[in-house]
Amino acid sequence: MTPLSDDLKSLLDAPEYAVLATIDPDGLPRLSVAWVARQGEDVILSTVRGCPNTVNLERDPRASVLMYPADDPTTVHQVRGSVTLSNDPSSMFFNALSRKYVNRDDEVDEDVEDDETDWERLVVRVHPTDIQ
């Protein structure tokens, strides 16, 4: 495993956005803006079962995460690696990200139908094999 630099660790610990890249079935990249964190040397994100990124990662467990500080977009960090998915049944990790980025736990909108909020949350763990 490739270690994260101190600068990248600081960026991952801050509420800075990242771009997750996965590979669609046709071989083209799929890019999504995401909230991120780290655990040890892994970059971790939250997703929902059935979304295109999850389907892509279940088929091909490789991803790239691109980050840069909002106040210095020319300082770019890219983490590429293999991915494991795990359940987040009580949304503990997602709620931690929500507190980090918007200072609140996930809240269900009472105007949304129950079947639209019954998502199976997953943790995406990127194990770095290459950092640029």
What's the structural domain tally?
Answer: 1
CATH superfamily: Electron Transport, Fmn-binding Protein, Chain A
In DSSP terms (H or I, runs of 4 or more residues), the helix count works out at: 4
CATH topology: Pnp Oxidase, Chain A
Give the H and E element order: HEEEEHEEHHE
Name the CATH class.
Mainly Beta
Structural Rg: 15 Å
**Percentage of helical residues?**
10-25%
**Helix vs. strand class:** alpha+beta
Tell me, what's the shape?
globular
Poorly predicted regions? 108-114
Strand-residue fraction? 35-45%
Distance between the termini: 14 Å
Question: Tally of extended strands?
Answer: 7
What does the main sheet amount to? 7 strands, antiparallel
* pLDDT averaged over residues: 90
Could you give a quick summary of the protein structure above?
This protein has one domain (6-104, 119-131): Electron Transport, Fmn-binding Protein, Chain A (Pnp Oxidase, Chain A), CATH 2.30.110.
Description:
The chain contains four helices and seven strands; from the N terminus they run αββββαββααβ. It has 132 residues and is an alpha+beta fold. A seven-stranded antiparallel β-sheet has the order 2-1-5-6-7-4-3. Strand 3 and strand 4 form a beta hairpin. It is globular.
